[in-house]
Amino acid sequence: MAADSREIRRRYDRLAPWFDGLESVLEGLFFRRWRKRLWAEVQGQHILEVGVGTGKNFPFYPADARVTAIDFSPNMLTIAQRKRERKGLSAELALMDVQALDYADNCFDTVIASFVFCSVPRPRKGLKELYRVCKPGGQVLLLEHVLSANRIMAALMRLCNPLTVRLFGANINRETVKNVQSCPFRHIYVDPASGDMIKLIRAVK
């Protein structure tokens, strides 16, 4: 694992015990609704969730699908494992970096991630990995924080970004739609209702 990935992982390991509490207000007001909308788009029988974190998406897992979920933070994954056991889920959890997935080409019907690529050191490399493991005709679904299209807000986000990376390991100035467009997907759809700084993206391989 590269040095920058190790540093981000250490930050998430440090935050893991308090992570759900830190995001509880935003989760209740905004994020949970969008997670539900994201998972409603899932298709197929074999699903990969990238960046499972503490397991916030567990309530939305399809009952009739095989779900594999990964995270690069051991401490976050430990919390997810405990939640999985309490909920009686059959999902397979694995410690893995999205920038180097240990899966064969073309093996998942849907690859899904929520609020993950703000913290991936090399996001285009990670997105190319998602493309690689997705089956032809399959889809990659993303719910992501992005840089505002408003110039003043974008300037403020760029100004604050070094602090948010240092404190939380998350970038608030990512241009994730452009990064997805750099991959050879056949079709990319951005939900127009998902707003200026949060985007729901569907990319078909």
Automatic annotation (TrEMBL):
* Residues in Methyltransferase type domain copies: 48-141
Q: Which InterPro entries match?
A: Methyltransf_11, SAM-dependent_MTases_sf, Thiol_S-MT
Pfam families per the UniProt record, alphabetical: Methyltransf_11
Q: Which UniProt keywords apply?
A: Methyltransferase, Transferase
User: Which Gene Ontology molecular function entries are recorded, alphabetically?
Assistant: S-adenosylmethionine-dependent methyltransferase activity
Q: Which domain of life is it from?
A: Bacteria
Q: Kindly list the biological process annotations in GO that this record carries.
A: methylation
Is this entry keyworded Methyltransferase?
yes
Name this protein carries in UniProt? Methyltransferase type 11
Q: Which organism is it from?
A: Methylomonas koyamae
Lineage of producing organism: Bacteria, Pseudomonadati, Pseudomonadota, Gammaproteobacteria, Methylococcales
